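Self-study notes.
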Amino acid sequence: MKRRAIVIFLIVVGALMAGYGTAYVASEDVRYITRAGFEQTHILQARRPISKILADPKTDAATRGSLELVLAARDYAAQLDFDAKETYTTYADVGRDTLLVVLSASPKNCLCPYTWKYPIVGRIPYKGFFDPEMARKETSKLDAMGYDTYLRPAAAFSTLGWFNDPLLSTAMTRDSVELAALVLHEIAHNTLYVKSATPFNESFAQLAGYRGAEAFFRSRGEQGAADKAAARWEDEVVLSGYYTALAARLDSLYQSTPDSAALATGRASIAAWAREQLQGPIAQQLRSYRIGRISERPINNAQIIAARIYRTRLDLFDRWYQKEGQDIKQAVKDLKGRMDGVTGDSAFAVLEQAVNGEQ
């Protein structure tokens, strides 16, 4: 985003503060939006062109290597006809280990995500906070209302091309495969976004990220890294199947409308099954992820929903990739063409029809 756009953005934030001073004091939503505006402005002001950082002889070797990889992955995304725009041509040091925390919530007797509505993007089954205290307060409020809640950090986020997203310092701890996959994942959001279809969008971006990273490393002759990216995608498909089976068991329990005692007993029984699956057959199928001993962990619907957002019907996305000749460029291009005008969960139905050869 050029300087003029930054000025416009600052004017908008200023107008919000000046025009809604009373609302700022009284409304949690206005305080939330204002904080988000200030943080986004800080990120934009902190951006430095990656090319200048690489040209600086004081840049350490580890940072240099990571940033060179980011630019190469970004250029490869453009070769795949992903809408790279100016995403990840700059870098922003946010000055802390965690920039953003994300809240998910769900009733205890239903795998039903609590959603927040936003302009343009529609309903989203999570809410990101730059202010940890504000996140804790909203989490406590939902806890008191009887919801399962799950609060977790996020290393990166996409503005869907509205701003030229910089690479954030919080994403620089990843290994080379994860870093390349992150770049391709986030740029994929610029390329295809279905309104009010978060699980579809994130699961699509998982495909684009890992299969894109596989193709990227193979184009560089780095077969080991390419195989690692492929293995991670295949592990994600395995985990997608596990979460589908877990959700089916929970749905069966919840549809029986149990009383509070039966609900607690049923959730405990399913938690034991989940632990056995992860330590047994699932662990045996995984190629790159490792699952050690898992202590007793209660069922948390919000945590399951959050995990499934990135792992919904990955088998379907993989079948689409195979149908498209294992060509991630063609797979993304053709899928984008089929999603024109599609909204919500109907995106999965459109994808399934495409996989099955239906018009």
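Second protein, same conventions, sequence then structure:
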Amino acid sequence: MPGSKRTLGLVALLLLVAGRPIHAETSLTPAGAEELMNDFWSLVSDVSSRVGLQARAPARPRPQAIPQGGRPIDLSDLSQPTVIEDRLRAAFQPGADLRVTIPGGTARRGDYSVGSAESLSGHLLVVDGNADVYGTLRGNLVAVKGDVVVHPGGVVTGDILTLGGEVRDRGGEIGGEVRSLRSAILSPAAPVQSEQLSPIQSVLRRLAGVLGVFLTLSVLGFGLVMFGRQNLEVVSDTVSHSFGRAFVTGLLGQILLLPTFGMLVVGLILSVAGILLLPFAIAVFAMLVVVGVVGGYLAVAHAMGETYTRRRMALGVIIGSPNSYRYLLVGLVALASLWAAWALFGWVPVAGSIVWGAAFFISWLLGTAGFGAALLSRAGIKENFSGRLFPPEALTDEYLWATPQFGVPAGRRPGTRTPSRGL
């Protein structure tokens, strides 16, 4: 039909442009038309694959032979791809010259093709490039970070393994098995350069981190003083007057944190209404833990700043405005100085680890005490352990003027005389 002839003519024109031979006996016969169409679709897929490969990997290394040397890599058995991958990973060290020895074979870098008139004997390793087979390869073929394309007329008598690529059979012949493995081998074409910081750069980066944490805690602390000053002071006084008890309570709270969370989740799951409330319960539990830890740590900073400021005032130093803002800021500066020391000396091989361990231990100790104080005071609601409550005897006349039982020196009643020693 005219339409079929027109289509065959277009296919023949495309094949001529592509340089494909056209035989006279395949012009208008049905078998010839089918052969032309097969060649046409093979050409289209070949062009599209090449365009796609260029779009995916625009920067290919220059094709070249890989020098012999280094650890030998045996490619005679490809039945265990992970073993081959481990051997290649050990050979491809970033920053070092690539030298590979393939017993009974060759190694190439970049795109490599076996011509239609070539017959290559031995195993072949292609690194950072595609392997196009138009001729005959008598051996196994391994491609690293590249694809293997077996074109019409191409023959691979052995197995094919791709690490980080795929195998595309365009009408060739593969005598062995085909395996593809997603690999993370770092080939020399694109080595990952680890970031090497100088001591000054590392110090500046650590100081920036410490400063960021300090500013964040300062903002949170000032907000807590503004909206919850009374609760913060109660927790702070609990830390000051019952430090040991607060530390033990905080330690037990840390131990029982996960079991309590598990009991909460299991208890809610056992009921239908509890399942609906489970997400909200988890969110509230996490929020309470964060508030307890952060609030307790800020209370410790408040207690440290208050103790330091009052001692200076006792020595006669005039303080302009001794308030909770000043206490909190002074305490946070003292706590940040621990990590500032690590930021300055963290690059020293042994001393940096010691300073980091000391800063972490002290921060954990004080944070545990603050968390325990928050638990003891019920987030600053109860004043039982803050040293603010006096026993009932302290409000009676007998306790004030007679000899007490709590170690307070007795005073003389007004209007009475102190008996003499002779009477």
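Instructor comment on the second fold: The first helix runs from residue 2 to 18.
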